[in-house]
Amino acid sequence: MNRIKRLKLEGFRRLESVDLPVRPLMVLIGANGVGKTSLLDAVTLISASAGGNLTSTLSRLGGISSVVTRDRASEVSLAVEMEVPGHHPLEYDLSIRVSGTGHALSRETLRQDRGHASAFKHIDSSDAGIRYYDVRPGHKGGLIKPDWDYNSFETSLSQVPRMFREPEELRKVLSTATSYHALDVGPRAPVKLPQPMKPANLPGSDGEDLIPYLYYLRETDPNRFEMITDSLHAAFPDFESLSFPPVAAGVMAIAWKDRKFSKPMYMHELSEGTLRFMWLVALLHSPSLSTITMIDEPEVSLHPELLSLLAELMREASMRTQLIVATHSDRFIRFLKPNEVVVMDVTETGATTATWADEMDLSAWLADYSLDEIWSMGLLGGRA
Description:
Elements: E1 4-12, E2 15-21, E3 25-29, H1 36-51, H2 54-60, H3 64-67, E4 75-84, E5 87-99, E6 102-114, E7 117-125, E8 132-133, E9 143-144, H4 165-175, E10 178-180, E11 195-196, H5 210-220, H6 222-235, E12 239-243, E13 246-248, E14 251-252, E15 255-258, E16 265-266, H7 272-284, E17 292-296, H8 304-317, E18 322-327, H9 330-333, E19 341-346, E20 352-356, H10 363-366, H11 371-376
Parallel strand pairs: 3-18, 3-19, 10-17, 17-18
Antiparallel strand pairs: 1-2, 1-4, 4-5, 5-6, 6-7, 8-9, 11-14, 12-15, 13-14, 15-16, 19-20
Helix pairs in contact: 1-2, 1-4, 5-6, 7-8
């Protein structure tokens, strides 16, 4: 699996200048307002740039004027590096500037160093001018301009013809990045209602596909389904099994069997913490996770005893996806390792810093204290 190895952000809200190595599991910690959600939003914007959804995503975030660093920048720079086994990494760099009431793409490059030779450029575009490497049979190659209509408000990466294998892998890795927020568990939330049966490889951002997803796993991948029920057993000792009773033609519910009761409980009868943990377990066990998965505040409503299990589930999932998590929970940090934690703090000028905890001098403190205790004492920073 190709992975992103570095993330560079400039001019994005408080993230005035952040250069961060990316690891399989990275849990962002820090006080409110230090930029944890902004980092997730920045990755979402990079994903949108690769998927042809830059304009709509910028609009949802309030427009380029709302995300550019206030008073200090007139454009946002988003850059990633993707590892390429046996070769130098691919480097993608996109700069978006304020233009009137909208945005313009001031610079976009996709390049790869070639050792002593000059870097090979797959894309080299600026403003409304696209240039990309010509790979058509019978042509001499080199950077050319498109001879077809293109959208100047969307990136070259999302529009140019399919290039070499590695750039296509980068486009796929970025465009499929997925973000999840705290599960909706309101009275009419999708996760509490019966659901129509359909093909589903994930439980859905609001649990709207949880039932067809689990039913499909039970029928096609019983070992994976058993892993999910084993996790539920570990979290809830009285849990026995899940079943899927039909409630109408093509519509099913989930029945939760508890050994202390003769009749099963249905989703609308389960606690918020139980629903959220069940959804997280189903999500993290999915064999269809995107290459980059982001989860904001997964600890919401969870009993502290569930956080150790959640940390282990995330470690296992990070072997199949790059997992970026934002949390406020010091109890959750107790079950993490320094090489899994990014400490986010704010300087005196208001800019965000992001530092891996294992790059701090913590060895003497870790001999006597847990990571969450060190954070509580203020030795990591990242606190209000």
